[in-house]
Design a protein that fits this description.
Structural class: alpha/beta
Bound molecules: guanosine-5'-diphosphate
Radius of gyration: 24 Å
Strand order of the largest sheet: 9-10-11-8-12-13-14
Largest sheet: 7 strands, mixed
Strand content: 15-25%
Number of helices: 14
Distance between the termini: 40 Å
């Protein structure tokens, strides 16, 4: 599981600037999914071969109030779920009463805290750091987030403070066999009903694999000769009869499961329709680049009119999901549950596709001959060749000149063209554009 780092600090100390620095790589990728909302509060980054999750809490003011008003509930939950807290202070403002209040609050959580002194550009870092020793959180680590200074050193220190980083992320995940599946959906969508039904029917492989206990978050099982590993960070298996409250729902845990998975089975509740939280969670799944199968659950006992309403609702509110397979199921009765696995296999295969440079370049040439890129300042943008830059999800890299001037609509045209020609159902794809040679 990726460890979780929470960014804490009063407003304006530079949390979101640091967040963007640490998660920036994602913005270089163009997802072909108009309408997708991006979450700027949760992100992922890498240090060395190690991946981590980052949460920008944003919610501590440090003003002298009660704990409840001082912290948004989400902020407190994020700190509780974090493996490490980065507490940002401002080297220009110096130590404030609000910083002291936050330091006191943080002590109550008993989490490891690193004190990070931001905005050290244009000030003497040692002099600025001196007064912050009074917080009792050790030596402040100086950075200038806006200028990218000190970030690498900070992250080396961070790495030393994170638990369970024995294996680089990829090796850790690869220990688990088969196709790794995460079940995601908002509370009451039917996740635990579905998971318990599936695991009730299948042969658990738990005893074969070291480190698997009843409480493990990784649950290998076999179905029709294919091995899968279920990723259960939210404890859905143990909750069969207990109602999860909305309060206990954890975005962090959901994201950890998504990050560890190959394929996400996303549950929508047909009785409730599509809610904002669905779009929000789906945005995270797709930003993580995960293959996806949509299970519309509680399909039992719905009238034909109600079913039409659900289909229309989905098409209207989740247009960016048109690449995924939909399955209409009843976790309660088991109807349609078996069909999920064919869709999971197809999505996994599509996400792991390998396409040669020759084939991609031929596709690019066809796409361009059917629909030319636009003229920019009298010159036609030239696209020369394409190669595959990654898998899970597939990344297609297009080389040419002036590619930075390609309009979004043309990028989406190319992305759709590749998707259709390569028949990539169930996986997001990413396009990168490079100019030169
Ligand atoms: P947040 O409210 O804690 O998320 O703070 P922001 O990231 O929005 O930053 C608040 C302001 O501080 C913005 O105007 C940033 O440009 C500025 N800022 C952030 N980091 C630095 C830095 O390293 N040096 C300087 N001089 N300004 C910074
Ligand atoms: P979770 O919070 O996503 O894990 O949802 P649960 O599995 O706890 O299910 C929430 C409620 O929906 C429970 O009362 C279930 O019995 C009910 N439920 C789950 N799946 C179905 C289904 O396919 N049909 C119907 N009618 N109810 C379901």
């Amino acid at each position: 599981m990726k460890p979780v780092i929470a960014l804490v600090g009063r407003p304006n100390v530079g949390k979101s600037t640091l967040f963007n620095q640490l998660t920036r790589s994602r913005d270089a990728l163009v997802a072909d999914l108009p309408g997708l909302t991006r979450d700027r509060q949760y992100g992922t980054g890498r240090v060395g071969g190690f991946g981590y999750m980052l949460v920008d809490t944003g919610g501590l003011s440090g003003e002298a109030e009660t704990l409840d008003t001082l912290m948004a509930r989400q902020t407190r939950q994020a700190i509780q779920e974090a493996d490490l807290v980065l507490f940002l202070v401002d080297g220009r403002d110096g130590l404030t009463a609000a910083d002291e209040a936050i330091a006191t609050e943080l002590r109550g959580f008993g989490k490891p805290v690193l004190l990070v002194l931001n905005k050290t550009d244009g000030v003497d870092p040692d002099a600025a750091a001196a007064e912050f020793h009074a917080l009792g959180l050790g030596n402040p680590l100086p950075i200038a987030a806006a200028h990218g200074r000190g970030i690498a050193g900070l992250m080396q220190t961070v790495k030393g403070h994170l638990p369970h980083l024995e294996d680089p992320e990829d090796e850790e995940k690869e220990r688990w066999p088969g196709i790794r599946i995460a079940f995601v959906g908002r509370p009451n969508a039917g996740k635990s009903t579905l998971v318990n039904r599936i695991l009730g029917e299948e042969r658990l492989l738990a005893s074969d694999i070291p480190g698997t206990t009843r409480d493990s978050v990784y649950v290998p099982f076999e179905r029709d000769g294919q091995v899968y590993t279920l990723i259960d960070t939210a404890g859905v298996r143990r909750r069969a009869r207990v109602k999860e409250t909305v309060e206990k729902f954890s975005v962090v845990k959901t994201l950890q499961a998504v990050e560890a998975a190959h394929v996400v089975i996303f549950l929508l509740d047909a009785r409730q329709g599509v809610a904002e939280q669905d779009a929000h969670l789906l945005g995270m799944v797709l930003e993580a680049g995960r293959a996806l199968v949509v299970a519309v659950n509680k399909w039992d006992g719905l009238t034909p009119e109600a079913r039409d309403r659900v289909r229309a609702d989905v098409a209207l509110k989740l247009p960016f999901l048109d690449f995924a397979e939909y399955r209409f199921i009843s976790a309660l009765h088991g109807t349609g549950v078996g069909d999920l696995f064919g869709a999971v296999q197809r999505a996994h295969e599509a996400a792991a596709v390998k396409v040669s440079t020759g084939e991609l370049t031929r596709l690019l040439e066809r796409a361009v001959s059917e629909h030319q890129p636009p003229l920019v300042r009298g010159r036609r943008i030239k696209l020369r060749y394409a190669h595959q830059g990654g898998r899970n999800p597939p990344v297609f890299v297009i080389h040419g000149n002036q590619t930075e001037r390609l309009p979004g609509s043309y990028k989406r045209y190319l992305s759709n063209f590749f998707r259709q020609q390569l028949q990539l159902v169930g996986t997001p794809i990413r396009m990168e554009f490079r100019t030169g040679e």
